[in-house]
Write a structure and sequence with these properties.
Elements lengths: L22 H24 L6 H24 L1 H39 L20 H32 L2 H15 L3 H16 L7 H25 L3 H9 L4 H12 L1 H15 L4 H6 L18 H10 L5 H33 L6
Length: 362
């Protein structure tokens, strides 16, 4: 009597008990859909006027962490489930951090785009305008002039200070500079405005002094410590081997810094400068104190009041006239213009860093 033995089916231990490759994004999308359906039902039953997209994304992401852990636990086991849970928590932290940013940009675009697209917004000022109409040309030019001059003042001072601290600084002077830079990093912006106002009020003996150059000085007080700190960290990242190789060839130290250290760290320095510009371009308090506000065009940084975009947004919202909606729309459009300017500056910075960073060959 012959017996036949049936072999057990072969299983691949490397693929058995594993979730599909794209299971995580599918579970995340499903969690958002489920949470969105719940919020939609609550909106319909409660008679709400708008769908809560922020709550949908937040609670959907939290639901995703729970769902992916349980799904992985029953399919792949506890060890793999813990790994997926940590990965899900990192993803959730990223999504939750993006929610306020995306919500802010979306709200600004939705509310500011109608006035932003009007033909007169970038071609006229608010001179003799008491209701609808007019534009923000005077504020845009004021922001570009004041911020540009502040950058011209701050970048050389900040970069040279960073070079001194990194390449030459030793002893008490270097420690004192580092201490004061740290203190300046944390000062409130209004203090910088009061400093500039008090300085020029004493120089000109005029308690009502208001002009764009004073605003540039106030912004430079805020920019310099950011430029120093970011440039210093970038210069420290340059390998000492590059400096030593230049010294071995007989290159003097100043030329080594100019030809080796600065080009190597240029991308990071430009990024730090853009961060400092983004830090001050939206400041309102110091400019309101020393630069003032006006509804007319002013291209002269050294004479009379000068309007800037942050102050324009503030005054349009705070000093509404009879046509309230027109003032609010202009305020949102001014905020949108600020965001667009910062985005353009960052794009230009990335392009400059890419063009002038050292090319590494093999």
């Amino acid at each position: 009597m012959s017996t036949t033995t049936v072999a057990a089916p072969l299983t691949n231990s490397l693929t058995a008990g594993k979730l599909p490759k794209h299971s995580a994004p599918i579970v995340l999308l499903a969690s958002w859909l489920v949470t969105g359906a719940v919020f939609l039902i609550m909106q319909i039953s409660g008679g709400g006027s708008s769908f809560n997209i922020t709550g949908t994304l937040f609670f959907g992401t939290v639901l995703y962490c729970i769902a992916i852990y349980l799904l992985s636990f029953f399919v792949e086991g506890g060890r793999k489930a813990k790994d997926r849970l940590v990965t899900a928590l990192v993803t959730a932290a990223f999504v939750i951090a993006l929610i306020p940013l995306v919500s802010l940009i979306a709200t600004t675009v939705i509310n500011g785009l109608p006035a932003f697209l009007t033909p007169t917004f970038f071609t006229s000022s608010q001179r003799n305008v008491v209701g609808a109409g007019g534009g923000a040309l005077h504020a845009v030019m004021g922001t570009l002039l004041v911020t540009g001059l502040a950058t011209v003042i701050s970048v050389p001072i900040g970069l040279l200070s960073a070079i001194y601290l990194t390449e030459y600084g030793r002893g008490r002077l270097a420690r004192a500079i580092t201490f004061f830079v740290d203190v300046m990093t944390g000062i409130p912006s209004i203090v910088a405005g009061l400093f500039a106002f008090a300085l020029f009020a004493l120089i000109f003996n005029d308690p009502g002094v208001r002009f764009g150059f004073g605003g540039a000085i106030a912004l430079s007080v805020l920019m310099i410590p950011v430029v120093v700190r970011s440039s210093e960290e970038m210069l420290k990242l340059v390998p000492n081997e590059l400096r030593e190789a230049a010294f071995a060839l007989g290159v003097p130290k100043w030329l080594t810094i100019l030809k080796v250290v600065l080009p190597t760290s240029l991308a990071g320095i430009v990024t730090g400068v853009m961060i400092s510009i983004s830090r001050v371009i939206g400041e309102t308090a110091p400019l309101l104190i020393i630069a003032g506000f006006t509804s007319s065009m002013n291209y002269d940084l050294f004479s009379d009041r000068m309007m800037t975009l942050p102050v324009f947004v503030y005054t349009q919202y705070a000093n509404q006239g009879s046509d309230t909606q027109a003032y609010i729309d202009r305020a949102w459009a001014g905020a949108l213009t600020l965001i667009v300017i910062v985005m353009l500056l960052n794009a230009i910075a990335r392009l400059i860093a890419k063009l002038f960073s050292p090319k590494l060959g093999r």
